[in-house]
Design goal:
It contains six helices and two strands. It has a two-stranded antiparallel ribbon with strand order 1-2. 15% of the residues are buried. α2 packs antiparallel against α4, α2 runs antiparallel to α6 and α4 packs antiparallel against α5. The chain is an all-alpha fold. It is 72% helix and 3% strand.
Length: 159
């Protein structure tokens, strides 16, 4: 009789201890600040943006066109290169601004810039576009939509 009662107490205690323990395979999962999410999305966007241009060099005729002073139907000039550099610089700066700007300005800057870049990215598909370019453009648009979504749903400060 005594052993049965003792085993019942031990069993009950072990159930309480086990229910309060975190499982051995539980992984730590921290909540990421919206600023870091936005900066990460802009960095991801930039990798794709740059790699599409880089992989374009592997397409037949691209190097010859560049050496002849053409990209798509555009002449390579200082104006063309300046516009291209501005197009690349804005997302690069957005990585920093997403972390550095105050919340209110940050939110609207991300919404506006990402909204402008969606048609800009789709414009880059004009002309001869290969499957890898469509794939990258789709992922870029998804990343830009996520930027808009996270900025739009920016957590409100609790009073």
């Amino acid at each position: 009789m005594q052993t049965t009662k003792l085993s019942h107490v031990v069993q009950k205690r072990s159930m309480n201890v086990n229910s309060e323990k975190t499982p051995q395979n539980a992984l730590e999962d921290i909540t990421l600040n919206v600023k870091l999410k936005l900066a990460s999305l802009w960095a991801s966007f930039m990798f794709l943006y740059i790699y599409v241009d880089y992989f374009h060099l592997y397409m037949p005729g691209s190097i010859e066109d560049i050496l002849a002073g053409k990209v798509f139907t555009f002449d390579i000039s200082y104006v063309f290169l300046l516009i291209a550099m501005i197009g690349v610089t804005i997302p690069v700066v957005m990585i920093f601004l997403s972390v550095a700007l105050p919340a209110k300005g940050n939110r609207w800057t991300n919404i506006i810039v990402a909204t402008i870049y969606i048609p800009y990215m789709l414009f880059n598909l004009a002309g001869e576009a290969w499957v890898h370019m469509y794939f990258a453009a789709a992922v870029e648009v998804i990343l830009l939509c996520l930027i808009i979504r996270y900025a739009w749903k920016w957590p409100q400060q609790k009073a």
